[in-house]
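Researcher: For the annotation table, I need structure tokens for Alanine racemase N-terminal domain-containing protein. Please keep the output clean. Sequence:
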Amino acid sequence: RIRKEIPDNVTIVLASKTRTPEEIIKAIETGATDIGENYVQEAERMYNSLGEKAKKVRWHMIGALQKNKINKALPIFDVIQTVDSLKTAVAIDRRVEKAGKKIIPVYIEINIGSEITKDGLKPDYEIIESLVREISKLKHLSLEGLMTMGPRFGNPVVNSPPT
């Protein structure tokens, strides 16, 4: 139903958090093309539970990716949406090269609500622009865009940081 209301060039990523493998299989069978997971270990379990169906969708890392989990993440995830520092980007780039993958799409994570409980860069143009320039120099990452998530409650205008 939602798919009919948004442009075709918009990708809907379904977060599998708290969902069962059966629910994800049903989503795939009804047209889901992209699945997001917050944790590498949860993604491993879900991916393995889905069998061949897991290969029919693109997997997005949508939670903070710890550097010690990058090697485990690369065989599962097709996209990493939570790059929030050059250090993380460089670590992913090096591991992608070692794993023999050519390029992995990444998104810069922005904490648009400036929430202390959320990861991501401050919504500061100069900081973001600097990271964009540096990531663009890396050979094994393709910067696709920004990943943002606003506050869960309240008026988004009131909860937005000052500009």
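Researcher: And a one-line annotation?
Model: The helical segments are 2-5, 21-29, 40-50, 70-73, 86-99, 125-136, 156-159.
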